[in-house]
Every structure is written in structure tokens, then in C-alpha cells.
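Dear colleagues,

As part of the handover before I leave the project, I'm documenting each prediction I ran so the next person doesn't have to rerun anything. This entry is a single chain, and its sequence is reproduced below.
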Amino acid sequence: MNESPESGLREIQDFLLWLRVERGRAESTVNAYERDLRNYVLWLGEEGEKVATVEESAIISYLRGLQSGGRAASTVARAMVAVRSFHRFLAVENLRGDDPTTNVELPRVPRGLPKPISEIEVSELLMSIDGEETVGRRDKAIVEILYGTGARISEVVALSISDLDLSEKLLKVLGKGNKERIVPLGRYAESALIKWLSPEGRGSFEPERWASRDDSEALFLNRRGRRLSRQGGWGIVKKYGAGIGLGARLSPHTLRHSCATHMLEHGADIRTVQELLGHSSI
């Protein structure tokens, strides 16, 4: 006998209210949870199950049904995260004595590499940046380093002036796990950095009084004279990508992947590329 379609909806609303008020989740996130949980509760009703008594075996059946329905792995994973979060909430709030999802393994979403852009597109991207204006000098230096060294955007914005050795054309990068690596600077990145470090470049963003020592040592500054954030660096890349029609195809990680791809295409040794990018494995 099917359960009422209203069964479990009150608990869902309590959970959604908790997400909004206690967790401060964005409305778009809350709406996505609601859609996934309504589908879950509807399935429970069709199977004669209840939110208050459903067991692990039934939840695994729900997962298998999602997987066999032709949905993308990311869609299935998102739906199951909603189900697990919902049941954890019920257990914590004593609306149910146990959490039947505890031992349910969530599906893994394969991480695909971004498709690299072509060398012609890289050239168009760099040509679109006005390297004479203050902002353009900074932005060109950032993009040149991202593409020329394969560094992560988080590594680039974390750079301090002391990490740069222009005389030897080297850059000291602090990667994941606080592992340092030394990367060479190509002539284009070197030239862009020299222009950025001039009085007309970084000097124009330097405040009369620094807010912190970290800001004064930062290689890249924002307009307020503070260290450029990761979000700021990401936005710079996306802005110029949109300007030449790359749109969603371009991100800082795309430039990192393009750097590696183009080096390999030009005959670089794969282990050299691995060391340059700071990968622990090929």
C-alpha cells in the first residue's frame, strides 16, 4: 500500500528552514535540496516506506534506481548528499532515533580535466589585455604566469615580492602541502612582471599606509592596495576569457592544463612537466 505523498514533507520543510537559518545556505542551494528530497519522499511513498522508518537497504535501492535511470554521476551524487544530510538532521534533532544513511557509500564523481585552449587562443587572450594601463599590467603578468608556469591561481595570488628572482628568472611557489618548488620564468612572463613592478604598475596601487605587512609584501595587489584574493584572480581570468568569446571554457585551471598540454606537444619530458606543475604523480 502506497504512503500518502504528504508523508515526510513536514520534515523536509523543517530541514530546509534549518538550512536557511542555521547554515545560511543560498536560496538556490535550498531549492535544489528541496527538489531532490521531494523526489526521494515520493519514491518512499511509492515503495510503501516512511521517512521515520526507512532502512539502509531501501536507501541503497533508491541509489541504485537513480544510477540505472541514466542520470549523470554528479546528479546522482547531489541527490544522495541531500538524502544523507536530511537523515543526519533528523537524527541530530531527535526526529528519528538513527541515521540509516551512515554506511551508505556515496557515488564517486569522476574528475575530468578541463579541455585545453589552443595556442592561438592563448595568444588572443594575452593580446586582449592592455598591458599599458595599471590594471592591465597586473592582469597580463598574472595570465602570463598562470600559462607560462602552470601555477595554480591560489599559488599566484599567494606570491610575495621576495619569491621573485628576476636576475635568475625564477619564481618560488608554495604549493599544496606547503611544498615549495622553483619554476623558471619565460621571457614574456618576465617582461610582464617588470612592467607591473614599475611605478606606473604596482606603484600606482600602493597605499600611503599599508593595512598589513602581508599586503606590503604581496606581489599582486587589488585597487585598494590589499593582496589580491583568489576570487579576484579568478575573476580577472574569466573577464578576459569572456571578452574573446571563450566564456565557460576558460578558467585559471584551464590555463594550467593548457600549459602542460602545450609543453608536452612541443616535446617536453612528462616528468619535467610533472615537477613544474607540482604534481605528486604523473
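The chain has a mean pLDDT of 89. The radius of gyration is 25 Å.

All the best with the project,
I.
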